[in-house]
Automatic annotation (TrEMBL), chain A:
This protein's GO CC annotations: membrane protein complex; plasma membrane
Name used for this protein in its record: ABC transporter ATP-binding protein
Span of domain ABC transporter: 9-246
Superkingdom per UniProt: Bacteria
Family from the record: Belongs to the ABC transporter superfamily. Macrolide exporter (TC 3.A.1.122) family.
Coiled coil spans: none
Entries under PANTHER family matching the protein: IMPORT ATP-BINDING PROTEIN
GO molecular-function terms, A-Z: ATP binding; ATP hydrolysis activity; transmembrane transporter activity
SMART domains for the chain: AAA (SM00382)
Record keywords: ATP-binding, Nucleotide-binding, Transport
Lineage: Bacteria, Pseudomonadati, Bacteroidota, Cytophagia, Cytophagales
Amino acid sequence: MNTSTSTVIDAHKVSRTFNPETIPVLAVDDVHLHLERGEFTALVGPSGSGKTTLLNLLGGLDKPDKGIIHINGVDITKLPANKLIDFRLHNIGFVFQSFNLIPVLTAKENVELIMQLQHRKKTEIAERVKILFHQIGLEDKVNTRPAQLSGGQQQRVAVARALASKPQFVLADEPTANLDSKSAANLLDVMAKLNVEEKITFIFSTHDARVIERARRVITLVDGQIHSDTARVETNVPHEVDKLKL
Amino acid sequence: MNLSLAWRNIWRNRSRSFIILTSVAIGLFAGLFVLGLYAGMMRSRVRTVIDSEVSHIQIHHKNFKDDFDPALVMDENLLKDSLRSVQGIQSIAYRAVTQGMLSTATGSAGVQINGIKPADEVLVSSLNTKIIEGQILNEETKSHLLIGKKLADKLKVKLGSKVVLTFTDQESNMVAGAFRIVGIYQTINAAIDELNIFVNQQTLNTYLGLKQTCHEVAIRLHRDEDVEQVKLTLQSQFPQYVVESWRECSPETDLMVSTLDQYSAIIIVIIMIALAFGIINTMLMSVLERTREIGMLTALGMNRPRVFLLILLETVMLTLVGVPLGLFLSWITLAYFQEVGIDISSFSGAAMSGFGFSSMIFPEFPSSSLLMVMMIVISTALLAAIFPSLKAIKLQPADALRQ
């Protein structure tokens, strides 16, 4: 297995089948994936291609039937449930399609919650919150509840929450799916900036060409298998993605 | 953060939270009201037993109560001398007691004939307050009699009617005497009214062939709580006699008082089961409604004990809001009915009277049971919250997020 100190994710022969007893659906089929620190990767593919399932497996939200997944050198498929929750808390940030902020907490409290779960000191939490809200450009919305924020603002708070725990990488499941163009562009700017400035690894599943445009690596899934894996330096949409007519 | 999050969560769905805290308040109210009602009934019954029926303590000859043999007497002078020095005694009534037959022109009934000194009896059993027609006995008049309302109705006699009492004297000779009814009394205990008649002690002693003796000494104390202490003192002074407290003289009342807690517990358990199901149902709904959010919290790193604690805290907080509400409701209601009473005569007055209970119940706030009831309500809420909490921690984040 190819692992180095800069390896964040190393998935080997990972498979996941749903309903194995009744009507088996092979959502992820024998996937090999290797992500280095600082990558900005888009996971693309048509609906039902296994993007979300693969993200869930990489994030330790689901367990593969076969294969192993190393995150920062730790085989998360072997971790017991409670250890896995703790591992996620300290190593992985999540951004969900429908924001999933806690409606009864303010934007700031949503971000603080993660650090409180980590038992961080109050002063440290306050400092981190200040930095994160500056990075997402919502300093004036810290005490606002999610219902009073726009979709784009909510998703930016979700990004701040994902980064609050200082994770090695952030998994984002269709982060721009519910956003208008401007909000999506703003969010991508924030994520790209964090990726460049803080070397945070981002991997996001998406259908959105605007997101794919900004990715430096595009992995295409078809029927649960990696169809193509293209690293790019230029900003053009990769050839393989074009072919799939996403 | 868990506390703050739990507190805010409970106000997300105000109507649901209102249902739970109302259930808790009503559960507590029902529990306390039942206890208050029972406590009031029992207190009233015990007061009746002490104030009107048997007084605090009674003294008899050892075998007198076996078959009410009039020959089994106690030395009244000896008792008087000794009782004078006993601390805690308020008043004493010396009685002659025998059993016999009361006959009228139209019928007869078995009765207990109580020979009393009216002046003493008033102080011990407040007999004068029970007279509903006529007057209490006069010590000077020898052949007057007081009869209970129930017996008078049964034998169809009235004030001024002449009756004949037949009984045996101390030598087992049949004796009979004619008496005129000068008073009709009525207590809240119909059984007592039907059985007991009162005549002058001296008159009865004359018929029985007794002098300076009595069969029964009834003693009223200044304080209820001194009963056991005074009883021990008297028993050591009169080892030849039987000294009994009201609990032994009226064992059925003692049984009712001692089983009150068990009856109350059964009713409270039934109320709590209903409350528990209400809480389980509502909290389960709350968890299922937030499946996605709970899954998200687990995904982000909130461990299972914290999720469990969150749901438990929400229930406890709702309970703690409901408890003062229930307490206030109980206090107000019981305070009101303690003043005006609850009249149940319209649907169970006769039945209550048959058991010696007043049909007017004055419930009292069960302060001594308050902590226990509150603990039971809170424990019920906690136990009821376990199932929804377990449901919450069993959610798999990937499955929950898909919903």
